[in-house]
Amino acid sequence: MENILELQGVSKTFPRSDFTLENVTFSLPYGAILGFVGENGAGKTTTIGRILNTVTKDSGTIKLFGKEMLDVFLEFVQEEDHSVLLSSHITSDLEKVADYIAFIHNGRLLMTVSKNDLVYNYAVMRCRESQFLALDPRDIIAYRKRDFQIDVLVPNGKEAQRKYKGVVIDHVSVDEIMLLLIKGERV
Known about the structure:
single chain, 187 residues, Rossmann fold, four-stranded mixed beta sheet, 6 helices, 12 strands, 23% helix
């Protein structure tokens, strides 16, 4: 068994509100820490409530320790082969301890990625509009237009630097990545 927690296509609609949790799918390997981030109202509490079976699901499966969750089940231990799911909208704490980061927004899981991948590979290109228009759309995860530049989230900063001469590339915090995913446009 590789994962301590697995969510597959978990959905929940609240008829009296405009909120829907849509097909959330991610897994948490044994011994890892997953930071589950999103702004207030993104779906973190609904997802965790669903994991603990305090919120009913419309569809999907949740497995904890390889078994589908049918009853409330929560275990906390400090052994190395167990895992932790931290839910927050404060990313600076998660950057320090998480092994993986899952981004949720408006009930939709945007991405799950290892923190090392975020820290060492993901980057933001600072482009002029003419540079932005010349980018291959497959290199763009999200972008946000600002006053005099366009910030573009890319999955591999080093490759983007080689491919696109003359653009400024910055490695950024999880907070800025979350901001681009939530406030930016997706291709």
